[in-house]
Amino acid sequence: MKTTTTSEARSNTRATASGSVRTLVCVGMLGAISVILMLFEFPLPFIAPSFYELDFSEVPILIGAFALGPAAGVLTELLKILLNLVINGTNTAFVGELGNFIMGCAFVLPAALIYKHKKTRKTAILSLVVGVIFMTAASLLVNALLLLPAYAAAFGMPIQTFIDMGAAINPNVDGIWTFVLLTVAPFNLVKGILVSIVTMLLYKYISPILKGNR
């Protein structure tokens, strides 16, 4: 009996170690794909100033978070930012990278936490809706209180510069809060919806590979 128990324990340990290695490999692969997708970014000038650019780098991160868990999603998000800094450097004094990480986590983490408890199509849709709402809400507070002031300080420009850029798109923008409400929030809402649609289309094809079912 003791020998059997020890054998089972060793088998479980090997399985756990194998699962951890697979997760790390998948995180590395998904992080690399995300960095590549970051290269294909584009502005939505009819919604927000051109320095807000949309990309689909959150798609592989969301797929990984759904398949491997919330922690894997956050780790992939961090790896994406670090790899991008190593490969491309920064032209935003690290402010853009910080914002990208915060917004990505605000999207991926709540979505993955919800999906983890019940992995159905309906739950996936609900989790993505919640993730988009969290990211959009976070974009209001984080941009107004942290990112825009940090940009202004880093590049020696007044906050009014951003407000004027927003007013050129939407004349109702007359302050920092109307700027984030009328330009930043819609931008993140559109981004979240597009990323969610692509994620739903691809997840069932990619998740079995990440889980080792193929």
Q: Would you mind describing this structure in some detail?
A:
This protein is mainly alpha-helical and 214 residues long. Helices cover 80% and strands 2% of the residues. The longest helix has 37 residues, at 2-38.
Question: Strand order within the widest sheet?
Answer: 1-2
Low-confidence stretches: none
Question: What structural class do helix, strand and pairing data support?
Answer: mainly alpha
How many individual helices? 7
Shape: globular
Percent range for β-strand residues: under 5%
Query: Averaged pLDDT, please?
Result: 89
- Assembly context of the chains: single chain
Count of extended strands: 2
Radius of gyration (Å): 20 Å
* Largest sheet, strands/sense/barrel: 2 strands, antiparallel
Q: End-to-end distance, in Å?
A: 35 Å
Helix fraction? over 70%
SSE order: HEEHHHHHH
